[in-house]
Amino acid sequence: MKKAVVMFSGGKDSTLALHAVLLQGFEISAIVTFVPSSNHPWYVHRPFTEYTDLQLQLLSMKEKHVTISLSSNEKVLESLEIRRSLENLYEKIPFDYIVLGVIASDAQRTLFLNICDYIGVKLYTPFWGRDPVQHLLDILNVGIEFIMTTVNAWGLPVELLGQVVDFAMALKIIELSKKYGFNPSFEGGEAETFVIYTPLFREKKICVDYETHIVSYFEGYVIPKSVYIC
């Protein structure tokens, strides 16, 4: 059986990637969440990463969760931290694949390809090159529910912050992306997300009480007050 380590931020793409490898019969060796000290890391997702344990508890996979802190604010040093941490993990828990939910970010894909070459494993990116509109709709079709935790794109209104993205909202986002030119799957950092429900959760979901911090009409973020299983 193919053994995989899944990069998991708690957002929609990494959650769908975890779904994919489970359904494809991979053995999950570990689920890795990087928690950067910087609010603006170069290669990984920051918002709500401290709550990924709740998601994996509902997936009955908490024992597989490996949380790795990143201390550097510099691009090269951050990449080295990621590489060294995965190299150390491989020495403790051998695996065949690193799984990444990326669909269009050359920077992320190149970094993890290089890491895989260095360690001697393969990179699996199940959604690489997928149409971003179809990707967004596929996530909803699977039954994944997520909220918008950051907004940072011209044309993407801050009123969406904290809202659960359903099909009606997804269609609105797609329409706005055509008008303003941003990626509707947010692959370019236009927004970030946090998953509150998947069909693999044990019946319950995650509730989020929050405030919003608005920088401008098209920029803001959610400040979590309480995140809990409900």
UniProtKB/TrEMBL annotation:
GO terms for molecular function: diphthine-ammonia ligase activity. One of its GO terms (biological process) is protein histidyl modification to diphthamide. It comes from the Archaea. Its EC number is 6.3.1.14. The keyword Ligase applies. InterPro entries: Diphthami_syn_dom (IPR002761), DPH6/MJ0570 (IPR030662), Rossmann-like_a/b/a_fold (IPR014729). Signal peptide: none annotated. Keywords: Ligase. Residues 3-209 form the Diphthamide synthase domain. This is Diphthine--ammonia ligase. It comes from Ignisphaera aggregans.
